[in-house]
Specification:
The chain is built from three helices and 17 strands. Helix 2 packs parallel to helix 3. The chain is globular. It is α/β, with parallel strands linked by helices and about 240 residues long. Strand 9 and strand 10 form a beta hairpin. The chain has a seven-stranded mixed beta sheet. The chain has a five-stranded mixed barrel with strand order 2-3-4-6-5.
């Protein structure tokens, strides 16, 4: 996935969930759209360098959108993270079509936003002539030693999706939870039991029911005026 018309700035603050003030090197401050409804724990770092995309659309209230943030790592390096959760499904679809996700390679007839009971899952596809249901969750919370956690706040909706996947698995369907790790500093994914113990328990129960849990990290290459993001490599999921 390529994102064009990028410009860097310094994050001043994120507020009212969907708004963020960013100051450019020229001294100009703009208000950008923040396409992330979550707590953004670990990402809301005033003073950090951020990347914005520009949209010349008269129907938009805000021309700028906050896309990426640069964050320091424990080893003294810099990691990149995507804050735009609206891009996660498109990234996964690209990876499915390109065969990047080896566990789902060869999948066809990809159908997004599939209603199952009273829930809606992100994808349904055919793999080896079998129906497979996939729910995508973006992971960006890095706490220590390269360990990423999900969720970053209590997620009733996330637990509902887990229960839906578990029900499918118990009825003989292939059900997959896919963590789209959009933080280059994360090397391993774990459920955030210290934040949402109900979700952590629900994940264990879902696995026992037959739900497969995968994690793939994004490669993020940000350059002047353009960035490229793609799912690149599998990561270990640790459920204690």
């Amino acid at each position: 996935m390529k994102i064009s018309f990028l410009r860097t700035g310094t994050l001043v603050k994120r507020y009212k969930r969907f708004l963020a003030d960013i100051t450019f090197a020229t001294g100009e401050t703009v208000t950008a759209h923040c396409a992330n409804t979550g707590a953004m724990r670990g990402l809301n770092q005033p003073g950090a360098t951020v990347w914005l995309s520009y949209h010349n659309n008269p129907k938009r209230k805000l021309a700028w959108s906050w896309e990426l943030i640069e964050l320091p790592t424990a080893t003294g390096g810099v990691a990149m993270a995507s804050i735009n959760t609206a891009r996660a499904n498109a990234l996964v679809r690209e990876a499915l079509e390109a065969g990047v996700i080896s566990e789902l390679a060869g999948g066809s007839h990809i159908r997004p936003e599939v209603k199952v009971g009273d829930a809606r899952l992100d994808f349904e596809l055919q793999v080896d002539h079998c129906h497979c249901f996939v729910e995508v969750k973006q992971v960006t919370l890095l706490e220590e030693n390269g360990i990423g956690y999900f969720p970053d706040a209590v997620s009733v909706r996330g637990l509902k999706h887990l229960n839906t996947l578990a029900t499918l698995a118990r009825h003989g369907k292939r059900a997959v939870l896919l963590f789209c790790v959009a933080h280059t500093g994360i090397n391993e994914v774990r459920p955030a039991a210290h934040i949402d113990p109900a979700y952590a328990k629900g994940l264990k129960d879902a696995i026992q029911s037959g739900v497969e849990v995968l994690a793939y990290r994004c490669r993020i290459d940000a350059r002047e005026k353009q960035a490229e993001i793609a799912l690149a490599s599998a990561l270990k999921v640790v459920v204690e």
